[in-house]
Amino acid sequence: MSPHFRAFTFVDRILSVEGDGGVTVRGAYAIPDKVERFPHLLAAEATGQLAAWVAMAKLDFRLRPVAGIAARVDLLTPPRPGQTLELAADIETLDDSAVAYHGVAMADGAPVVRLHHAVGPMVPMTDYDDPEAVRTHYQVLRGPGAEPVAFAGVPLIQARPVGGQPGVSRLAIIEVPDEAPFFLDHFPRRPVFPGTLLVQANLEVTLGLAAELPPPRSGGAWTPRAILDSKLRAFIGPGERVEVETVVEECDGQTARFRVTARRGRKPIGSGTLLLAGKEEA
Amino acid sequence: MAASRWNDNMSNNVSITKEEVMAVFPKVAEIVADALGCDVSEVKPESSLINDLGAESIDFLDIVFRLERAFKVKIPRGKIVEEARGSLSEAEFEKGGVVTEAGLERLRAFLNEVPAERLKGPLNVADIPKLFTTETFCKMVIRQQRAAAGAGAA
Lengths: 282, 154
Hints:
The complex is a heterodimer of chains A (282) and B (154). Chain A is an alpha+beta fold.
């Protein structure tokens, strides 16, 4: 079965598209119950994809947005395999240069992620996918919906620690696989390592560094709460090597901030701030 | 673009005072510094965002959206070259991707905050964004604030 619209597509149905200037979109995605894990960031990806589908339709599939900037992503109730994500996105502005939106993914009445001030720059559709195939799938999403439970999970892309100063910084290497099912869907004409998976790997590196800090005052482990000022500057292709550095910016015993930079060679290709916290104090 | 609208843009641009620029500059500089991950002390009014501060196209998008949120204005994207060109046709403004002498004259008048030594030929059209300084963005904000005020008064 073709991985197109399956291996890295997280919208099953687009339920409503309302408005002309500012557009409000609602959709859904059923997380397959057989996948091992479904991290928060894939729910954020789903929300972004919902906005992207409608943006592409409004631009007659000439252009498609790619991941760019997010001022803030709140990581709330963890999603679980078997849940259905209820997706909502509000498109603030849309033109040939970019789509700006905010959105939320809910599951069983609880918010999973909130995206604030996200921007997706536009690229020519034909460089990445077949415009008519994308148009046809959009019509499926607006109509009967895509076949659910098509997603088989993504491989955990782990970064290998190579240096740093305990409790202060950590340097790690991500070896992007040469092949993976998600490349065939993201994107068929130009395989690009999903920015979401880069951010997920950055998060894992940061959790490793956080484990070297004193535990939070409220007990338990340091838990990701938000990603701030996330920016992706360049595409990463199959087989590439990315260096990730995470540095403790601030730690007050209950909240810790980490500055993360991803580089390819000497060139920064992504950055952001990760906010971790202990469990909420009574 | 009609000559009258270009003249309006030009008079809007020329009449922006240094005081007006410096009134918005601190906030604009903070936004540029946050977007580019540099120290705000490095951001000067005459700093070229690309050549001096290392900005890329994604950063321009980031800065414009942050300015819109901070100043509650709408900044037209991709229009600055069109505005600078004014009543000149595309053929009069550039030939083979290189800005003509007439085009350079228009750029010097419209981007009057850009040091003269940077605005000389041969200049590729694709390199025009390299001319943009922090003050260029201050003026974008001021023009849109004026446009919004004018629309509100109408």
